[in-house]
Amino acid sequence: MRAAAGPLPALAAALGSAALLLGALAFQHLGGLPPCPLCIWQRWPHVVAVAAGVAVAALLARGRRMPAALALLGAAAAATSGAVGVYHTGIERRWWPGPDTCAAPDMGGLSPGQLLDAILAAPVVRCDEVAWAFAGLSMASWNALLSFALALPWLLAARRGGSGRA
Q1: CA distance 30 to 159
Q2: Measured by CB atoms within 10 angstroms of the end CB, which terminus of the chain is less buried, N or C?
Q3: Cα-flanking dihedrals φ and ψ of residue 16, to 5°?
Q4: Secondary structure (3-state) at 164
């Protein structure tokens, strides 16, 4: 029974990524908070982590070992989402500029017609504004913290060498 603990952290981390994705979708569809482009970028690595977790579960169901490389993929995916979350947080806090597609352009010195054109071409959801915060942290900040935390169980599973079998 002790050997079966190897992939359990990976499965728990995959469920954590699934929970973060569901939370983001709930904020979007139930809470009326549409995502900015960087919010979408933060979601894709979680999709990869969930897929890695599904692969782990499928292997275990067949009585096969979890390859450590699969756990490392999950860890890299979670850490990537965390890194994008840090980048997004920096944009929100004005620590560094974001992509041109995420922020409002400099409107100084524009004619009224140019200003109207710039406003109409501006993205609806901006990456440099916090749409929601809890305890002083934005969704991007929470995603960064939780994603880095989710990378740890994946690494633990990889360290254990995927020794678990169904």
Answers
A1: 39
A2: N
A3: -65, -40
A4: coil
